Amino acid sequence: MSDHQFSRRHFFYGALLAGAVPSGGFGSTPSLKALGYKSPNEKLNIAGIGAGGQPFSDLRDSEAGVENIVALADVDWKRATQGFTHWPKAEKYKDFRQMLDKQGKSIDAVVIGTPDHMHATCALACMQLGKHVYVEKPLTRTPWEARFLTQAAEKYKVATQMGNQGYSHDATRVACEIIWAGEIGEVKEVHAWHGNPGWPQGMQKIPAPTSVPDTLDWDLWLGGAAARPYTEGDDDYKAFAMGGRGGGGGASQFGFYMPFNWRGFFDFGSGLFGDWGVHILGPANWALELSPESLISVECIKREGTSPFTYPVKNAVKYEFGARGNLPPVTVYWSDSIQGDAYLPPGMTVEDARKTPGVGPQVGPAGRGGRGGGPGGPGGPGGPPVGAPGAAPGGAPVGAGQQAGRGAGPGGRGGGPQGSGYNCIFVGSKGYLGTSGRGEGVGLLPGSKWAEYKLPNAYLQRSPGASFGDNHSAHCRDWVRACKGGAPSCSNFGVAGPYTEWLVLGAVATHYEGKLLWDSAKMEITNNKDANKWVKPVFRKGWEIKL
């Protein structure tokens, strides 16, 4: 291992949260207990802000039949039926603030699965009470909120995690190790993309107001966002969405804003940047040490179907990063809603790229993205983690795992590979590497090169559970272990905050033509003052946040 590789691993797993958790794990029991951490043998009392859909999955996988779900807050009680039914003994609320006021003393940790615009508000309220927090991706809607939560985690010293579960998957870590081993040389470009979002964007008018359902508190749903009337949509909107002109497709079955389509609105979501970009670009963020400090500029180089209140129907954004230590400058390209024009290395056909026997490292029985060993074995329950520091070299031949391009579509657990079967390609001075979905897949390109490839030494500790099961469950339990005094979780806010900060600057760039120059120290765009209105949100009176 080179010095640079050592510093990288330390950077992501220690330095960013130095002092956030007392050193020594639960050997420092008195100080950990004073900060609200439980021992590994104690059950957590977990609350949820959001009880249906994705937050339900987060709660279920955090509970894992072990912890206690004690309270659920959701402004939409129709949507929340899923969680209310599954945990009938949990106290039920519409206002998360009332839940914290009434049960705060008995709650240890909170899972937050609200729309993006409420992530920072809910997380801060919980952290200020000493509650550990798991926040769905993206961490926040705006760059300012991302840095705010990074600082909040440092101040309140609680266990944190962003819900980009690919960070817990073996394949993401193997991708890092292949790059760090120098297999593809210096990485100068990264190309990442996704197809249609599944919700409509590019609408030109907001339909007339409709009555608010009895099961919904619309004002609470808006939270810190500017007040606006509720609407279910109209025939014009449904025709627009069903026609696929805005990328909506089946999303027309939902209301104009909720429970799904808010993702495309400036005031509530971050478009595909926050919904899928945060997954797809995860391996690049980790392997290449990307950060707001090294970001030089961001530019929207293609826009189609702009709207006064939603993200464009299609866009492409270019991020330029300077040198990071001894890593060279790198340009990262992100493309939304592409159809058939995914990046392929020069001279390589789609068929070349798909000649990949397995997109996940096989270290045990073959399976989705590769599986770890059984109980007691490396990577299995009760056994040493695969690739833990000091473990034996990797080097096992990659076998038949999930085949490139044959995972589930966008929204499925297998991710949404497009074009070549991957949706992120690293361009190195010596070759190419692709990753897929949420980071579940990895392979060298062309696929023939991957067939006999021997993995490099495994330097990154594997997340228990991810190597032999669903990485979403492993990601949630990674956070639970941190809540009980374990090491900081892999996407703690010291990692997730800076990542989200630079990522959602791409969403800011879609409002403008031309390059936006970023000054991280001042946290401002220096050559377009108007663009800074999208960097920090304006909170509705009564919803302001401060440390």
Could you provide a short overview of the structure?
With 547 residues, the protein is of the alpha/beta class. Helices cover 27% and strands 15% of the residues.
Q: What is the element layout, followed by pairings?
A:
Blueprint: H1 3-13, H2 29-34, E1 45-49, H3 54-63, E2 68-73, H4 81-86, E3 91-93, H5 96-103, E4 109-112, H6 119-128, E5 132-135, H7 143-156, E6 160-162, H8 170-180, E7 187-193, H9 218-222, H10 235-242, H11 271-280, H12 282-287, E8 295-304, E9 314-321, E10 330-336, H13 350-354, E11 424-428, E12 432-436, E13 441-445, H14 447-451, H15 471-483, H16 493-509, E14 514-519, E15 524-525
Parallel strand pairs: 1-2, 1-4, 2-3, 4-5, 5-6, 7-10
Antiparallel strand pairs: 7-11, 8-9, 8-14, 9-10, 11-12, 12-13, 14-15
Helix pairs in contact: 3-15, 6-7, 7-16, 11-16
The oligomeric status of these chains comes to single chain
Instruction: State Rg.
Output: 22 Å
Provide mean pLDDT, rounded. 82
Count of helical regions: 16
Give helix % range. 25-40%
The beta-strand count equals: 15
Q: Major sheet, described briefly? A: 9 strands, mixed
Q: Which class do the helix and strand fractions yield? A: alpha/beta
CATH superfamily of one domain: NAD(P)-binding Rossmann-like Domain
**Strand residue content:** 5-15%
> Which CATH first-tier class of one domain would you pick?
Alpha Beta
CATH architecture of one domain: 3-Layer(aba) Sandwich
Give the neighbour order of strands across the main sheet. Answer: 13-12-11-7-10-9-8-14-15
Low-pLDDT regions: 1-30, 357-419
How far do the termini sit from each other?
A: 40 Å
What sort of overall outline do the alpha carbons produce when their principal axes are compared? globular
CATH topology of one domain: Rossmann fold
